[in-house]
Amino acid sequence: MNRKEIKERRQFLLNNLLKGLFYLVLLVGVFFLLRHFSTEDQRYAWFGSIYDNVVLVVGLFVLSEIFFGIIPPEVFMLWSLETGMIGPYFFSIGILASISYGAGFLNFNMGRWVRDKDWINRTRFPRLKKYMGLFEKFGGYLVVVASMTPLPFSAISLLSGMGGLVPRSYLLLSLFRILRYFLYALILFGVENL
User: Fold this and answer.
1) Which end of the chain is more exposed for a tag (fewer CB within 10 A), N or C?
2) How big, in percent rounded to 5, are the helix, strand and coil portions of the chain?
């Protein structure tokens, strides 16, 4: 790999990390506003029926992680921090991270099963075409970036399987997903205790 490619990879990772930090700051800001400008009773009235239903929240999380990360995982991290309904905070983050890692591997295997790259051209999801182009350009490095940033981890996992990434490589590279969960959880825990 030449210097230009290394620089391009670093810039790609940095740009996406900055997007992730921006979204995290935005979410933490909304969390702070809700926390300081509403009462606990008001928050419970808005979110109570959802907040208290562990099966519903975890079910939504699983579906979101399988179907291209529709809901940012930080929302579920905040839920876990606020409620403690699936155990102590960092234990619950481990559960959420494991679910995300497993959902990614499920999508990776679906991609290996499909293997039809032309399918992407026939779908109505132009972003999939864009991400397939990025996978062809960056290969497994894209899995690392998607694991750590707001890029749709599930979609990248699917495309990685379609693109022929070796399962062992995928499993190793996607371990960064677990790292992301614990880093973000640590940040949210720190903000909670300010």
Assistant:
1) C
2) 80, 0, 20
Q: Where are the alpha helices (DSSP H) in 67-164?
A: 73-83, 89-114, 118-122, 126-138, 141-148, 153-162
* Average pLDDT over every residue of 17-28: 86
Show me where the domains of the chain are located.
Answer: 3-192
What's this model's pTM, rounded to 2 decimal places?
A: 0.85
* 141, HSE (Cβ side, Cα atoms, 13 Å): 17
**Residue at 140: amino acid letter:** G
pLDDT band at residue 175 under the 50/70/90 scheme: very high
What tokens were used for 137?
A: 């350009």
End-to-end CA distance of the chain: 44
Q: Give the DSSP letter of residue 53.
A: -
